[in-house]
Amino acid sequence: MAEDRRRRFVPPPALCGFLLLLVLVFAASYAVGRAAGPVAPGMHGSQTGSGSDTRPDSDGDMGDIGGMHGGGH
Predict the structure, then answer these.
(1) CA 47 to chain centroid
(2) What is the value of pTM for the model shown?
């Protein structure tokens, strides 16, 4: 009787295959991301507590964005 109970709790093979595929896809994407490096050169983690330079200037200018000043006017 204990053997029947143990046999009922075995997950279906399709579920095991799906979970294995999911793990492989995430592992591959992690490896590719590690090999590619950061998205932008000089990009660092966020700083907490200190005043970082990520805020726009006080006059509302977001810096030089190549022809984007003035809303395209």
Answers:
(1) 19
(2) 0.44
Instruction: Give the span between the Cα atoms of 11 and 19, in whole angstroms.
Output: 11
The residues, ordered by sequence, that sit 6+ positions from 52 with a Cβ below 8 Å of its Cβ are: 46
25: DSSP letter: H
Cα distances (angstroms) measured from residue 20 to each of 31, 38, 56, 72: 17, 28, 46, 50
Digit-coded pLDDT (tens) for 52-69: 555 555 555 555 566 655
Residue 57 is classified by DSSP as P
Return the structure tokens found at 63: 């810096």
Backbone region of residue 22 per phi and psi (left: phi > 0; alpha: psi in -120 to 50; beta: other values): alpha
What the block records as the tokens of 62 is 């977001």
